[in-house]
């Protein structure tokens, strides 16, 4: 039970880190997707979030029921709707960063792509 709560806390912290990385890219670095090719669509931003969420789940737990995985993905989507940084994903995350993140094998690699 403690391990599951610890994993959930870690998952939430890492989810906030992902949003923060998108915010870093949009605010400090000024990554503008239009400078690096076609801007991301809203669907691609959600695809990026879903992939990151899945990678975080894979890293934080050895086994999870499909229904629980889906619930965590839906929770991440709901939280992203409240995050102003995520709202800017389509206009601020470069195509290059997106493609790098989508090819990444784990959440840490994805984060490096978005920095």
Brief write-up:
The chain has helices at residues 2-27, 42-60, 66-81, 84-87, 89-92, 95-103, 107-114. The chain has 115 residues and is an all-alpha fold. The protein starts with a helix and ends with a helix.
Span between termini:
34 Å
Mind describing the biggest β-sheet?
none
Range of strand content: under 5%
Low-confidence stretches: 1-7, 24-36
Categorize the overall geometry. Answer: globular
Structural class: mainly alpha
Whole-number radius of gyration?
Answer: 14 Å
Question: What is the chain-wise order of helices and strands?
Answer: HHHHHHH
Mean pLDDT equals 80
Considering DSSP H and I runs of 4 or more, what fraction of the residues is helical? Answer: over 70%
Number of strands: 0
Separate helix tally = 7
Topology:
Blueprint: H1 2-27, H2 42-60, H3 66-81, H4 84-87, H5 89-92, H6 95-103, H7 107-114
Helix pairs in contact: 1-2, 2-3, 6-7
Report on this model:
The chain is mainly alpha-helical. The chain has a domain at 39-58 and 69-85 and 92-115. The protein is 75% helix and 0% strand. It has 7 helices and no strands. α1 (2-27) runs antiparallel to α2 (42-60) and α2 (42-60) packs across α3 (66-81). The relative contact order is 0.22.
Q: Keyphrases for this structure?
A:
mainly alpha; 7 helices; disordered N terminus
């Amino acid at each position: 039970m403690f391990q599951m709560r610890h994993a959930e806390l870690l998952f939430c912290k890492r989810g906030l880190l992902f949003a923060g990385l998108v915010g870093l890219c949009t605010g400090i670095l000024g990554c503008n997707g239009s400078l690096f090719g076609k801007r991301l669509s809203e669907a691609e931003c959600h695809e990026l979030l879903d992939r990151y969420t899945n990678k975080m789940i894979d890293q934080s737990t050895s086994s999870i029921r499909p229904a629980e995985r889906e619930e965590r993905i839906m929770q991440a989507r709901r939280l992203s709707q409240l995050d102003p940084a995520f709202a800017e994903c389509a206009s601020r995350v470069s195509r290059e960063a997106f493609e790098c993140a989508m090819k990444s094998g784990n959440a840490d690699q994805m984060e490096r792509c978005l920095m």
